Each structure stands twice: as C-alpha cells, then as structure tokens.
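Suppose a colleague, Dr. K., hands you the sequence of a protein chain of 192 amino acids and asks what its three-dimensional shape might be. Before reaching for any lab equipment, you can write down a predicted structure in token form. Begin with the sequence itself:
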Amino acid sequence: MSAGSAPRTAHPYAIDAHGFAAGVPLHASPHHDARPHGEAVSLLVVHSISLPPGRFGGRAVDDLFTGTLDCAADPAFEALRGLRVSAHFVIDRGGRPVQYVATHARAWHAGVSRWRGRERCNDFSIGIELEGTDTGPFEAAQYATLAALVRALRAAHPIVDIVGHADIAPGRKTDPGAGFDWARLRAVIGAF
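The predicted structure, expressed as tokens, is then:
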C-alpha cells in the first residue's frame, strides 16, 4: 500500500462499530429505537417499496422514512398520514444504497410479524427496502448491491436467515413479491 492510500476493507459496505455502512450515504430517520437489551441481529428482511405505488425515482420514499413526507402531494400518500416507519437501508433502481438507521438500532419496518416462532421481528432483524413493486422484476444493479450489503451485514452480525416481508407477515404483506429472484441472490451469496 502506498503512502496516503486507504486500507482495503473485506467488504465494500463494511459495517463499522456504530452500525454504519462504509461509503453509504446516511439520511437519518427519527423512526427507530433501541433493540431489547442483549438482542442480536439474526434475521434480514427484504422488502419492496415505491411511492406513489408503481412509480420510481423522486424523494417520496426518502421523505417517508425521514418523517417529512407531504401527504397532500399525492392522493396515494393520504393513507400514510401519521405513519412512522423506516428501514435500515433502501436500494434504488440504479443500485444506489442509502442508510436510514444504524444496524445496531431497531428500525420500524416489519410491523406485526413472526419468524420461527418469535414475534416482533423488528427486535432482531435488519430491513432492506428495494425500490420496486410486489409484481415486477428488480434490476441487476439492485441484486449486486444487495449481495454486497448482505455480505457486509453477515460479517458484522450473526444473521442466520434472509426472508421476504411476506414470509414474516403472511396474509398481511406480499413484498418483495413474485418478481424477486431468490435463486439469483442465493447464487451470489450462498445458501441461507
């Protein structure tokens, strides 16, 4: 390594001691709190989101997670009035990640949920939102970023399972939907 060059990390999005991913912009969300004392992260939940539904780009998802969404800006937003939600990360259609909550904190992404007999999945999970819909495909750049982020998260936390929102809230949620290619993700990160 030459003088002045930065050391290489094992993962492009290495998670630091404070729960932040290297090189990922932080748009801090007020919608989080502390995990229960001693609770380890063992679950990663993949979601999909678009605001308004089916429309990509814009600031609406960012505004929702940072608590600044103007619910009068679109009729579809009225149902979101007063909603306090967040995810740890969002990956847009171009594969660009943004972090909203430190991985050590509890983001409010899962809602009423259950996995392997445990309720309240927010307590022990990390939520990653992919810009998309429950019915359409996702972009190659999103899979590449998701895989890199999963590797970094697994290096920092004892993650055992990776599931969709529909898996932890069946009958209530359908995301990331039929368009999400689980086999493609497994092929690049290994079995889960």
